[in-house]
Design a protein that fits this description.
2 copies of one chain form a homodimer.
Chain A (H helix, E strand, L loop, with lengths): L2 H21 L3 E5 L4 H15 L3 E9 L11 E9 L3 H16 L4 H31 L1 H9 L4 E4 L5 H9 L3 E5 L1 E2 L2 E2 L1 H4 L20 H33 L6 H6 L3 E4 L15 E3 L13 H8 L6 E5 L9 H12 L4 E5 L12 E4 L4 H5 L4 E6 L3 H10 L3 E3 L6 H10 L3 E3 L10 H11 L1 H15 L5 H15 L14 H4 L2 H36 L1
Helix pairs in contact in A: 3-4, 4-6, 4-8, 13-16
Chain lengths: 530, 530
């Protein structure tokens, strides 16, 4: 057989073997995050399961959102580990809401920063404990190795999955918006601070000079948090179980594929990378019929329609005085209101308002009677509002929620009320009325909806294609630059520019000295002759 | 009717009208470039026509490749204008080949640079004359306005279409790899010179310190050519017909969509932007059966198979001594050779070699008997070789050809012979034998082929989707940053960093002076007391 024959045979065999492997489903190890992050990871898992893949999910012993084995996955529970849960999260969030309500002063900003930093430290401590627990459990690690997964699917808001993928030598795919050190793009794509607003800064992509200064300061704060609070915790785990040459930040940046939970209908346009795939709104789907009692309530709204209100998974209770104000405002409206609310029933609640523990949010947002969505600004809810073209009144509580809402405000689809303004001067009622009565809000959200839906492939299908692509090719090295391995001064060509500037200076000095030398020689000769 | 009713009606009407417009086909004004660039624009035009769109093509009076009206398009011929044609191009190219054959010295590099700059100046002069001719012809411009095109589809290697789109206030879509000032990405995406090699530098994405210095120097040369030779020509046209506030470089960067003629199987991974869509290899398709005489010739090669050789559309003739050497090398091989060659029949030609004026390159590359492709390194040919998984011996002549071939060499699919080495020491024969006998070349090209073909949509369908997307939404503003409108010092945050550094210095100085003041006061008091 000529050499090419061998090659072709080998190649054909590999293709057939790979096809067989993928047709019969791959094996995926999922390392998710808690809370609302799990909600959308679960959607991906269900879709992967329905395509014949086998899924194992790593979770903490005291998990909050991640239920035990389901028809779609098996769990690998790490003994003796905590996770984010309401008892852990809610007191911190309540303190943060309290601080925010005091208004924006340097003191409240500093208090918020300290509270936020503490939360970050604690969160990453939990993650480090979890991954340490796994690495120390030889039996667990051996059994994971023996299962021969095809890839690790990870939400990198914590670093557990990143180090696990390295230990198991597996391709790594992110379901990501946040990484351990901030917004995901910051780690992988060039991010000029002149038009890329930092999370928490409350800035858009069009900034004045003073706003650009604020943005730069926020960047320094983020960077400092990463360098001093986050990175060292994970690096310590790397040092212990791998070697000091293995940099945690390199592992983080070296993922094969980044499935980003945004699209550019929502996010400001910005530089990106070939291995970043946008799947914003992958959880959205057409509305299904409502349960009979809800449909009856919705229909009873007549031509005025319905307002929805939900503050997301993390905060089920707002401060009592605020809920009272909100309930009173709703009571003055001709619309019907469905409010996801878990606390005491506010005394000022009107007959037009239905309190619910849970609501089929997507189906309600897609109902033609729905006129407005009062939201806290979590990405899941906002993407659903974009998908269904429903305008928003935003009540951001903490984290990225203001920044998320700002993206819709800038496109004319949302109005934002900060926490310290909600219960003053009928602000809440006025905001609702403005968004209901000014047609541009709805028009803009429907324009965003038409842009968002106009894609060659559905975002979920795109995500599934690329996850399977990484399985088929055992990674996606051709899409990934390794520029992050360069030291910062080389990456930014500081060394080259200094060298060239030095060379130019040297040439100029040589010319100057030569001319001076020549000149003085001529002068001397002239003096001798004279 | 309530306000929302009005909005919904307006929106529905717009959607119905747009759908009707698109279903019945849009109107596209194509401003192409000459030579091989036209070959792939023509493929896009045919595909657009087959989807029911009406296409007009702007061409020069003395056009080379762009034929008069076809079943797929009508031409708008601009009177009194030249275009690139063999008489214009070939003498320059022959001079450039002569210089290259002398080997790489500083003198030959400088001569090449001068020759290349002259070519650029002349090329852009032709384009400027063409667009000036159009703008001065009021009847032509009025008729173009009256036709109400949906968009301009342009190859921005020249600036004609860019200014035409601005004058007609139309969305602008590029079919692009090169812009008037270099590789397309340089104008739109951040391009750190530490790992993005400049065209002509012959560097890859992994560079030593000295190579990074070379790369920086190449960047300065490119930038200088743009600033001093290219931009002023087009800016003069802008000044004359628009206003000095309209910057040509802003118009160039402001296109709605960039359909890039590469993909990341071919191109090194690098930062990109949301409005850049990769359609590399959109011209590739499965091989069709060969004409009977060619099939017979190919089959006569037996187990040894066939070698193809083509030097592209621009250079049909190689220097006589070189063709003699190449023919003699081919004669020593057991393979059959099909050589696209237009000059005199070399005396050393063997019986195994068939000279042809033209060949069905795609069908031959896709034939199972084809073992190797001797190519000049034009993108079209290389993309076809990737698609069919055929290894390459590259003979780069000029322009980007060496850099293109380098991308395949780095992936182990090609061997490159520079012009000054072809006819020495049996180099050509040895290169052919190496690529034929070393299985890794074929294996690597087949791996690239499988990566290239593994996409959720065919590149041509992707391109068509996005062209129609721009028609449906009258642009793609949400995918485009307007950061290029910032002055360079703001874009790179130089002003912000200087301001903050100044502020920190001021604070430090104030503290220092206060301490000194305090210290001297204390000292004085002490002295008084003493």
């Amino acid at each position: 057989m000529p050499p090419h024959g061998n090659v072709t045979f080998l190649l054909l065999f590999s293709i057939v073997f790979l096809s067989w492997r993928i047709c019969h489903g791959g094996k995926i190890l999922v390392v998710p995050a808690e809370g609302s992050h799990w909600v959308n990871m679960d959607i991906l898992i269900k879709a992967l399961h329905s395509r014949g893949h086998y899924v194992d999910v790593v979770r903490a012993n005291k998990s909050w959102y991640i239920k035990d084995d389901s028809p779609h996955y098996k769990t690998i529970t790490v003994p003796g580990t905590d996770a984010f849960n309401p008892d852990f999260v809610n007191p911190i969030l309540k303190r943060m809401i309290d601080i925010e309500r005091r208004g924006s002063s340097l003191l409240s900003f500093a208090s918020l920063l300290v509270e936020f930093s503490n939360t970050m430290i604690n969160m990453h401590r939990i993650m480090c404990k979890m991954v340490t627990g796994m690495f120390e459990d030889k039996d667990l690690m051996n059994s994971l190795k023996e299962r021969e997964y095809d890839l690790v699917l990870n939400d990198p808001v914590g670093g557990t999955g990143i180090m696990l993928a390295h230990a198991l030598k597996l391709p790594l795919v992110y379901n990501v918006r946040w990484i351990t050190s901030g917004e995901g793009h910051l780690a992988i794509a060039p991010s000029p601070l002149s038009y890329i607003p930092m999370t928490g800064s409350g800035l858009s992509d069009k900034m004045t000079f003073m706003q650009r200064i604020t943005n730069q300061i926020f960047y320094v704060i983020w960077k400092a948090q990463d360098v001093f609070l986050v990175d060292p915790q994970y690096q310590a785990v790397c040092d212990k179980f791998f070697s000091p040459e293995v940099r945690y930040s390199d592992l983080l940046k070296g993922a094969d594929l980044w499935l980003m939970r945004v699209d550019f209908v929502f996010e400001f346009p910005r530089p990106t990378m070939p291995n970043v795939v946008y799947m914003g709104g992958f959880q959205c789907k057409p509305a299904e019929p409502l349960p009979a009692h809800l449909e009856e309530f919705v229909q009873s709204s007549g031509e005025h329609g319905v307002i929805l209100m939900s503050m997301g998974t993390f905060v089920s209770e707002l401060p009592a005085d605020m809920t009272k104000e909100i309930a009173a405002a709703f009571a003055k409206l001709p619309q019907k209101v469905i409010w996801r609310h878990k606390g005491d029933r506010p005394a000022s609640l009107g007959n037009n308002t239905l309190l619910v523990d849970w609501m089929p949010q997507n189906d309600l947002l897609g109902h033609q009677k729905t006129k407005l969505f009062v939201a806290h600004g979590g990405t899941n809810g906002l993407q659903e509002a974009i998908y269904h073209g429903v305008p928003i009144v935003g009540l951001p509580l903490f984290s990225d929620q203001y920044d998320n809402l700002l993206r819709l405000k800038e496109r004319g689809g949302a109005k934002i009320l900060t926490l310290n303004a909600v219960d003053k001067d009928d602000n809440f009622l006025k905001a609702i009325q403005e968004v209901l009565n000014e047609p541009s809000y709805r028009m803009n959200m429907q324009r965003l909806s038409s842009l968002h839906r106009d894609t060659p492939m559905k975002p979920l299908d795109t995500a599934l294609f690329w996850i399977e692509f990484v399985m088929r090719h055992k990674g996606a090295a051709h899409l990934r630059t390794e520029s992050y391995r360069l030291p910062w001064y080389s990456y930014h060509s500081v060394d080259v520019v200094l060298f060239l500037a030095g060379a130019v200076l040297l040439v100029l000095c040589t010319i100057f000295l030569s001319i001076r030398c020549l000149y003085s020689t001529i002068c001397k000769r002239k003096a001798k002759r004279d």
